[in-house]
Amino acid sequence: MSATTTTPLVLTVPRPLTEHPAAVYISSLAPGSEETMRQSLNFIAGLLTNGEADYLTLDWAALRYKNTAAIRSALGKKYQPVTANKMLSALRRVLKEALRLDLMSPVDYAKAVDLESFKARSTLRGRALTQKEIDSLMSVCFSDRTLTGYRDAAIIALLRATGIRRSELVNLNMKDCNLASGEVKIQRGKGGVDRTVYLPDSVSTIIKQWVEIRNNAPGSLFCKINKSGRVIQGKLTPQAIRVILQKRGVEAGIEPFSPHDLRRTFVSDLLDAGHDLVTVQQLAGHTNPTLTARYDRRGEERKRRAVKSLEVPTR
């Protein structure tokens, strides 16, 4: 798709980053979200210019409704509603920065962001893993006596027991973990908010086994392991976590699952255990209980159990 406006969409003179709407927007994000949103903006920039511009060389302030409407149409054809809406949100946020930087008039801004969001599917995405599946995942890691087996066991145990996002997991440093007290500090989670999560004793033990191998040197909690089987400094990427889980899932012989499904499992299991929604919300790092409730994957059985607890006298 090429631009349909006579206004050039590629900057001829670079803007200082402090005056660049896309750069200002990216700098406001939590570290775990930066790369994803940067890729989204690069896709949009390439879409508008036939690949000539990226997120830093596109003149975002020159976009008008005809451009943003074309972007929305293209996103709707290529992506699922949730992903397309996230990319539209990034677009709106960049244009809002253009307005704040006095690069765009209020009228042009209002017209450009007047885009209807895509309606999400009515069915819930993802699933919760059963305890049997989790046991199988841990078993294949325990049976792998290499350094990778110890590391992957610690990764899966931590994701299962805390429900943290994979972007939060890869940003964990040794100093963030107090295994004696079972506390893990999440620094600048989604939305830039810090929080503390807590480890069951069994999970602390599994992570301690990995740390003994990794050693107590400062740096990322979960490091890379080279082909010769040696631990090397350098944090894993969120994509690496996805690959690790996919590999272990295949070895365990369980149905495919996403990293976020472990987060859904965490929320569902805590709710099933009777813990209140607000507590689970705080542990998950959600902004409101409504979002937490959308992670509930307990299905119809919990409704059946709830109704069975009611009593009505019989004759």
Structure characterization notes:
- The protein is mainly alpha-helical and 315 residues long.
- It has 14 helices and five strands.
- It has helices at residues 21-27, 31-49, 65-78, 81-100, 106-112, 131-143, 147-162, 166-170, 201-214, 238-252, 259-272, 277-284, 289-293, 300-308, and strands at 177-178, 183-186, 195-198, 223-225, 231-235.
- The strands form two sheets. Strands 1-2-3 form a three-stranded antiparallel β-sheet.
- A hairpin with an 8-residue loop joins strand 2 and strand 3.
- The longest helix is centred in the first third of the chain and has 20 residues, at 81-100.
- Residues 1-7 have low confidence and may be disordered.
Placed side by side, the strands forming the largest sheet appear as 1-2-3
State the CATH topology of the largest domain.
hpI Integrase, Chain A
Tell me the β content. Answer: 5-15%
| CATH A-level architecture of the largest domain | Orthogonal Bundle
Order of helices and strands: HHHHHHHHEEEHEEHHHHH
Alpha-beta classification: mainly alpha
Shape: globular
First and last CA, distance: 73 Å
CATH top level assignment of the largest domain: Mainly Alpha
Q: Look at the structure and name the CATH superfamily of the largest domain.
A: Intergrase catalytic core
How much is the average pLDDT? Answer: 88
Task: Give unreliable regions as ranges.
Answer: 1-7
Helix content: 40-55%
